[in-house]
Structure formats: C-alpha cells, structure tokens
Amino acid sequence: MTLEELSARQRAFADARAWGPFHTPKNLVMALTGEVGELNELFQWLTPEEAEAAPTDPDARARIEDEMADVLLYLIRLADVLDVDLIAAGNAKIDRNETRFPPGVGRTALEH
Amino acid sequence: MTLEELSARQRAFADARAWGPFHTPKNLVMALTGEVGELNELFQWLTPEEAEAAPTDPDARARIEDEMADVLLYLIRLADVLDVDLIAAGNAKIDRNETRFPPGVGRTALEH
Amino acid sequence: MTLEELSARQRAFADARAWGPFHTPKNLVMALTGEVGELNELFQWLTPEEAEAAPTDPDARARIEDEMADVLLYLIRLADVLDVDLIAAGNAKIDRNETRFPPGVGRTALEH
Amino acid sequence: MTLEELSARQRAFADARAWGPFHTPKNLVMALTGEVGELNELFQWLTPEEAEAAPTDPDARARIEDEMADVLLYLIRLADVLDVDLIAAGNAKIDRNETRFPPGVGRTALEH
User: In this structure, is residue D101 part of a structural domain?
Assistant: First the structure.
C-alpha cells in the first residue's frame, strides 16, 4: 500500500464517522502534537541504550509502533485537509537540505 | 516516489554527513517534537477561518509544506532507525480504530 | 506557597524516590513535552467556544488543572536541575518583549 | 517577585497590545507547544553529558533561560485566562503523586 492509499483509507474512515467538522487544520495540529507527546512518554525515562534496545522487546515495540502510527495518521490527515503532497514536500526539503548542509561536515548537525 | 524510497534517500543523506551517532531514538523523538512545535507556531494565532485559508496563500503554503516535510522526514528517519514499517503500522492502527470507533457515532471523536 | 517552595517540595519528592538519575535535562524536556501533549489532547476537538467554557465544567476543570500542574512540575524540576531562576528569566523575557513589541500594534501578535 | 505578580505583569503586557482576542485557550496551548518545541531543539543533538554541562556555557545558558521563560510565560498566561491557580494545582498534584508513588521504589519512575 502507498502513503496516498493509506491517506485515502484514513479519509474514508473519518468520513464514515462524520468527523470532518472536527478535522480542522488547528485541531489536527493539536492532535498530532498529542500523539508526539505520547511517543515522548515511551522514551522519556529510558537510557540511550535502553531506547536503542526498545524495539527488540515485543511489548515495547507494539507501543512504539502504535504511537508512530498515530503520528503518521494525523500527519497524513492534515496533509489531506490542506491538500499537501507529503512525498513531494519531503523530497523538496531534502533538495534544500543538500544545499544547506554540504556532505562530510558531521557536527553541523547541531545547527540543523 | 514511495515512502520507502524517500526514507532510503533520507538515510543516504544522513550517512553522507556521518549523522548516524546523532540519530538515536531519543534524539530523533526530540527533533520530531521540535518540528511539530514549529508547525504549531504557523497556526497558533490564526482564527479557524484563517487556518483553513492558509494553503491558498503561496507564502503560507510554502512554510506549512516546509514544516510538514520536516515532521515527515524525522518520522521516517525514526522509523528507519527503529526498523518500523510505518505504512503497515498505520494500516494496523486503522484496523484497531475500526473496532474502537464504530461508524456513525460522530461526537465520540472527542474521546479518541 | 511560592514557586521556589513548590520547587523545593518537588525536589524532595524526587529525592525520596531516588529519581535523580532519571531527571536528566533531556529526559525532563521529554517529560515536559509529554505533559504538554496531554494538555493538547484535552482541547484538540473542542470548538473555540467550548474551550473557553471548559473551566466552568468541574470534570473538565479538574483534568485541565491536573495537566497544567504536570507541565508546571516538570518545568520547575528542569529549572532546578539546570539551576535556572524561572521568575527572573520570565521577567527578563518580558523586558526584552517590551522592546520587541511596542504597545498598541495589535496584530503583530502573529509574528511573535 | 511572585509567580502571581509575574502573571499580572504578563497580563498587563498583553492588554497594552490588545492581544486578548488572540489569547484563547486553544491558541495559548499551541503557543506553549511551540515554545516547548524550541526547548527540545536546544537539547536534541546533545549527548546526555553535553546536556548536563550546557548551563555552564553562557551562550547556551542564555538560550535555555530564554526558552524556559517563554514556556513559563505562556503557561501562566493560559492559567490566567482559564482562572487556574498554578501553585495550588501543583501542590494538589504532588499530594496525589505521594499516594500514587510511595517513597523508595526507584525505577517505577518508568511508569509515572
């Protein structure tokens, strides 16, 4: 399944529940924020090593995948409502980043 | 281009700059949070009506697409580092949501 | 009780549970983010009018106060760990904002 | 200066600029989110050790204090608009946490 097909499925899901009036741009940005907050909660008390190892634990992996799915679903719903092509936008951003961050400079990651 | 191909491009971009050591799970969750914060800043003072109309203004649209691209790029980078299949996770979540939220109930959106 | 006294109480609470090792700056920023995410979730599907009226409903008020308390508690814990005087920092910021935003200009709120 | 006095100063600042109409509950939650996002950006690429040491660098300390001030200012502005007593709410939350998390259990921090 493509991202576009997943977005269409998400739209049909919302339409079947008459959630359109709730899915305004501001509301969806807040909902996206809430899910990113839940993703933070999964990692906040882990040491860096525990965070790296989290996906090897089936329960932790299930929770991580669930929250990342929620983030993705609100992001594609917002893109749908705003008529944004996320793949094209992502590609255009990497194009710009290739100019902003020439290869091989390592630590300038701190500034990006 | 598919989401998987965009993710591979993002990974090659990071590898060419030796950013792997910075791209730990916790760091990427924080970077994702920062970009979602910037997306909030674009919408925070707009009325609901202005927010709906924002994509029709070329400058506003460019800023929105830029921040949504940043959110997507950190999300797919995190998925790559954690070996998560985002499309599969998103589909599995809609499957669960179809059980949790039967069609036709409208306002229970408030609880989801 | 002053903010400083509340911060001291929060520190004693953490010390009594040996939570010091978890309360690193990055972890506390992530925990703060998680609580702000929960605050977003309380308001995300409300209309502007419902959001204004929320504090008049006892249950909604209790949830809002609970999440705002969590945000405050992690913020003052972070300030304690980083040795930041929040009241002084807030005052210094309003001093700077008075220069950046001269009175009477209204809509420049959009840029701040 | 007390937190209440800082809040009164922040209210006067907003009133002098006629920002009341922008300072709705939802808008302020989004603005708070934006500032927490900026705080994340200051720490996201730092190692845990660099994050601990950040306050000893004058430039880094100034940026951290500036972002923490912004978080505090939007939090107290939201509390003012919603008529929430933050100090009382924080105390009530520690009261509840003392029941939820008996002293001496250490790692249950992961669940809180």
Answer: no
**What residues of chain C, 47 to 106, have a C-beta less than 8 Å from chain A?**
none
Of A34, A35, A44, the CB nearest to C30: A44
Compute the Cα dihedral for B59, B65, B68, B72 and give only its sign. negative
Q: Using the beta-carbon criterion (under 8 Å), do D55 and C10 form an inter-chain contact?
A: no
Provide the whole-model pTM.
0.96
CATH number at residue B29: 1.10.287.1080
CA distance B44 to D32: 9
**Domain range enclosing B20:** 3-95
Establish if D19 belongs to a structural domain: yes
Residue C82 within any structural domain of the chain: yes
Q: How far is D45 from chain A (nearest CA, A)?
A: 6
Alpha helices in A1-112 (DSSP H): 3-16, 25-43, 48-53, 58-82, 86-100
Residues from chain B contacting residue C25 (CB–CB below 8 Å): none
Residue D82, domain member (yes or no): yes
Give the position of tokens 């972002």: D67
Q: Give the gap in angstroms from C-alpha D97 to the nearest C-alpha of chain B.
A: 25
A12 and B CB contact within 8 Å: no
Q: Which amino acid is at A106?
A: G
Q: What domain count does chain C have?
A: 1
Q: What are the pLDDT digits (tens) for C41-62? A: 999 999 999 999 999 999 999 9
Nearest C-alpha neighbor of A35 from the set C41, C30, C13: C41
Nearest to B109 among C30, C33, C45 (CB): C45
ipTM over 0.85: yes
